[in-house]
From TrEMBL:
InterPro entries: EmrE. This is Multidrug resistance efflux transporter family protein. The chain crosses the membrane at residues 31-50, 70-91, 103-121, 128-147, 159-176, 197-218, 224-244, 265-282, 288-307. It comes from the Bacteria. Keywords: Membrane, Transmembrane, Transmembrane helix. The lineage of its organism: Bacteria, Bacillati, Bacillota, Bacilli, Bacillales.
Amino acid sequence: MKEIALGVLASLFFAVTFILNRVMELDGGSWLWSSSLRYFFMLPFLLIIVMYRKGMQALTQEVKKQPGAWLLWSFVGFVLFYAPLTFAAAYGPGWLVSGTWQFTIVAGVLLAPFFIITLGGKTIRQKIPLVSLLISSIILVGIVLIQMPSAKTISTENLMLGILPVIVAAFAYPLGNRRMMDVCDGRLDTFQRVLGMTIASLPAWIILAVIAVITVGLPSTSQVINSLLVGISSGVIATILFFIATDRVRGNQGKLAAVEATQSTEILFVIAGEMIILGIPLPEPLSLFGLTVIIIGMFLHSYYTMLMKKKQTPTPKTLIKSQGIS
């Protein structure tokens, strides 16, 4: 339950991304700056945190061991995640991008077979947790219901440009996150891992920034300020909270899926934020029903996680049996 609570809290800060990215696009800001500036602003905050915790030496040693893996999975987990999200913000409102992003709930569950664990000296390929997949699918149905009324007002081209890049991001984020957890194998804490991934992804962000300077010029003051807010709220606070939660349950695909499913609550925060900041109207009844379905799905995930935890907790009776005591 603590991990799910952390996931929901992270979703609150993640929601800032979708709202402010849309604000920047409406103000004429380029997605190239929206994406790269976030990680430029994240870097000093993370450096201060890790240096204060005296974790730089351990991080440097880990990166030197497998620089290729750090570059690859940081690119997947950060660049292929965030660049498509900011690009999609240019073609659709925050609710559309945030709603489509929830596909990551199902994507995270489907990625299970790509990971292998070692038990008793044997390598075992993980299986898709079917119950978690079913519950995640319920949440996904709720997300579809939310979007149906509003999707009718958007052109097919904008709909595709606002959806397809986000689907790429939906797979990239959990894939990069899980692969980096495997690479680190518990030797680094969350702050070190996020900093390492940020540094390893910098070459890509620098390239995007150079392209932005050439094509659209320097960013406006408002875009810089909004990107700073996104960097602190979503890039530092939300990412660290979410990574802490996933780190705690990384050995259990069902619990990991439950934590990743908490990202569905982002759309609730985004709708509320856009109503307040951008003045969008209250969702239609069908959308409100979709919100109810999402909340039910979240409760089911929480309940299932608690059941799994109880089953895995040894009772005095099972301990006696395991020790051969009659």
